[in-house]
Amino acid sequence: MSGEKTTKEILEEKAVRGEYIPLYDPEALKKIDKEFSRWKNTVVREQDRENWEVTPHTILGSELPRELLYTPLNNPDFDYIGDLGFSGEEPYTRGIHPNMYRGRTFTMRQIFGAGSPEYINKRMKMLLEHGATGTNWALDLSTVQMFDSDEPEALGQVATVGVPIDCVEDMEVICKDIDITKVSASIITHYPRNTAIIFPMYLVMAERRGIPWDQLPGSSQNDFIMENLVRSACEYIPPKDDFRVQCDNIEFIRKYVPKWNYVTLNGYNLREWGTSGVTEMAVAVANAIEILKEMTRRGYDVDWVAERLAFFWAPANDFFEEVARIRAVRRLWYKIMKYRFGTKNPRSMWMRCHVQTSGVSLTREEPMSNVVRAAYHALAAVLGGVQSLHVDSYDEAYSVPSEEASILSLRTQQIIEAETQVTQVVDPLGGSFYVEALTNDMEERILNEIDEIERMGGIVEVVASGWLHNKITRYMQREQKMIADGDIKVVGRNYFRAPDLKMPDVWVHEYDERIGKEMRDKLARIRQRRDNEKANNTLNALKQACKHGDNVMAACLECARADVTEGEMRRAFVEAFGLWKSPIYV
Amino acid sequence: MVSQEKKIKVVLAQFPLETHNRGIITVAGMLRDAGMEVVLMGNARAEQIIKVAVQEFADVVGISSYCGGELALGDELLTMAEREGIRDHTVFILGGIFPPKDAPKLKEIGFSATFPPSATREEITSSIKSAIAARSLG
After folding, report:
1. Residue B1 has pLDDT above 50, yes or no
2. Predicted confidence band at A135 (pLDDT cuts at 50, 70, 90)?
3. Which of A341, A510, B20, B50 is a plausible cystine mate for B66, CB 3.0–4.6 Å?
4. Whole-angstrom Cα distance, residue A383 to residue A429?
């Protein structure tokens, strides 16, 4: 820690209420307290009084105890202006924009299915015709893990869970006839290294179409937590190097592709891996803090980086907790930016986020029930004021979603947007005694977990040491036991399970072996056609950039221009940084 | 309860590119709690998995797969097991997300049992025990 103050210490020192005006009149509170005691002791049944606090057990829950009834007494020094304010103004608890969804509805961003670049191009156009307002690319397994489609490890997995991208030519096919200056693309590159490899292919595709980079809207994931913590794979580089690549990518994209979001601070996959909504947010925010510290060390203005940071959350079952924690982290992020980093730029204080409804909360049993679950998850997210949404499909415990299932997910969003009218009023749950108390609790818990991480040396250190791996493994093991023992109720699985339960006939994605062959043929053709000496030179330059601290994305761009493939670039990174084995706990 | 029985030894692994490991960690915990000895390899190639199974005298090799490729890579694994002479006295199982219609094909390849995401501890442990019993009889 080198004597540096933690974020919590800084906030305790600086984020003190200025002009504090309590909303509740002390006389009124006194009266409420008196009446509350009377009511609780005389009207409430004894057994309810004894079990006044109940701890909810849910999949991915935080187990924060809940009272039977919430009143002003749960938040007696509530200061409306200080704690809530108005939407679009500090402290942004109620939303980052004054008019929220009246101004612009949440982006309906559904992930596409899997298939060849040609198929994905068609499917993207189909979803856009059905009213999707952005694209969201799932990459196939070998592409995520940075292997070429013709490497032996990719056997049988090309295009099974996403689209394969080996080189610029694949990008050209995927984006054919799509106006990439209008349709924003979210490219789920997962890792920093993968972002450094894949995103330049997108840029070179735009370049070859004559489209200037400054007209490209979209986002890339670029999160070292994904590589070094959440995911497993055979070829990872050490966390400190991966963190550096993450920051190199941010630096490059910020400079040259100004409308592109260069990092999606990913809570989602971490939570889905198996942790609470509190840890999910603490880890992502701790990474954001570390990024801002590193970028200021590199000499950049904090706002230059912060104003385009975006988060990614996983709303799950505990409805009000989900709403509250989105509000909570929005207020916390504002405080961190204002008091820890001293920003005056409102955009830097905005906790902008995309959410995807929880997949782990869905069941294989009676899969149509998942439509209902996902709708509640999505509603919580919208009531929490998110910017962008993906609704999981009911068939995800079987396969990559079918076309029918992904359209139903899109319809779920459209029903929320156009029929329920929940988008007409900003932060409709604001002011609820319960939601405000829960928001306060969630904010405190998130900050405490950030503090714990910082006291142990920061996010890179707790990943490198395996501390976070261990913490999350403990959580998931415990959760599994609670499901097995019925302490966590899952309808249709362990609660009201049908005695004659049969697994329905769900359409599953068919693996098409021809795609693998087409990709292999294409790679052979490209390796023959390209200038291989130039390709090798750019790869050597990439290794040098890794070793000497030059920006790696700039080096990858030259590789992409020379039609170097993804796997070739991966190997250059591994040669330069060496391999790192992720710790596994049982 | 003192058991004189030798502990069942299970090697758990994922194919090289698999990114999801919640399942394998969870199952490792379940099997350990059920009194088995677990060697958790994480991502590995078929030849590495078989090498460890041989070295460890594993009774069971369990594969966790979520992203496809289970037929091609499973076949490679069992072929490798055959070559190293452990195919007949080792139980191979596979769990995760795969098309239901692949389950019979995986059995043909040589997996004694396959498990979807909702499989319980009891289902997995009893399948392992009966498969081991069947092997010893055969």
Report:
1. no
2. confident
3. B20
4. 7
Q: How far separated are the first and last CA of chain B, in Å rounded?
A: 29
* Residue A163: strand, helix, or coil: strand
Q: Would the CB atoms of A477 and B29 count as touching at under 8 Å?
A: yes
- Rounded to 5 degrees, what are φ and ψ at A445? -65, -40
| Contact: B43, A234; criterion CB under 8 Å | yes
Over residues A141-147, the mean pLDDT reads 94
For the segment B11-25, the average pLDDT, to the nearest whole number, is: 92
Q: Do B67 and A161 touch (CB under 8 A)?
A: yes
How much is the ipTM here? 0.87
pLDDT per position as a tens digit, A61-94? 999 999 999 999 999 999 999 999 999 999 999 9
Residue A128 predicted with pLDDT over 60: yes
The minimum CA-CA distance between A161 and chain B, rounded to whole Å, is 6
CB atoms B99 and A493 under 8 Å: no
Give the pLDDT confidence of A309-356 residue by residue, as tens digits.
999 999 999 999 999 999 999 999 999 999 999 999 999 999 999 999
Nearest residue in B to A274, CA atom = B22
- The structural domains of chain A, with segments of one domain joined by +, span 1-107+263-496, 112-187+191-262+531-586
Cβ atoms A146, A194 nearer than 8 A: yes
d(CA B10, CA B53): 8
Which domains can be identified in chain B, with CATH numbers? 9-137 (3.40.50.280)
Cα radius of gyration (chain B): 14
Whole-angstrom Cα distance, residue A84 to residue A435?
A: 12
SS (H, E, C) A536-568: HHHHHHHHHHHHHCCCHHHHHHHHHHCCCCHHH
Confirm whether A1-107+263-496 and A112-187+191-262+531-586 share one CATH topology: yes
Q: Are B45 and A508 in contact (CB < 8 Å)?
A: no
Residues A190 and A194: their CA atoms lie apart, in Å, by 7
Q: What is the mean pLDDT of residues A232-249?
A: 92
In chain A, which residues have their Cβ closer than 8 Å to the Cβ of B15? 153
Residue A400 clears pLDDT 80, i.e. is over it: no
pLDDT in tens, B72-124: 999 999 999 999 999 999 999 999 988 888 899 999 999 999 998 888 899 99
Mean pLDDT for A439-455 is 98
Distance in angstroms (rounded) separating the CA atoms of residues A317 and A61: 8
Per-residue pLDDT at A398? 80
Token pair listed for B95: 């769990």
Using CB atoms, pick whichever of B25, B76, B121 lies closest to residue A476: B25
User: With bands split at pLDDT 50, 70 and 90, how would you rate the model's confidence at B9?
Assistant: very high
- CATH number of this structure's domain A112-187+191-262+531-586, picked from the four choices 2.40.10.220, 3.20.20.240, 2.30.30.240, 3.30.1490.190: 3.20.20.240
User: Across the interface, do B99 and A398 touch by the CB < 8 Å criterion?
Assistant: yes
Phi-psi region of A583 (alpha: psi -120 to 50; beta: other; left: phi over 0): beta
Record the tokens describing residue A522, joined without a space: 């294409």
Please answer yes or no on whether A586 and B43 come within 8 Å at the CB atom.
no
Q: Is the peptide bond before A91 cis (omega within 30 degrees of 0)?
A: yes
Cα dihedral A190, A194, A199, A202 in deg (nearest 10)? -100
Architecture of the domain defined by A1-107+263-496: Alpha-Beta Barrel (3.20)
Closest-CA residue of B relative to A159 is B68
Please list every residue in chain B whose beta carbon sits closer than 8 Å to the beta carbon of residue A480.
26, 29-30
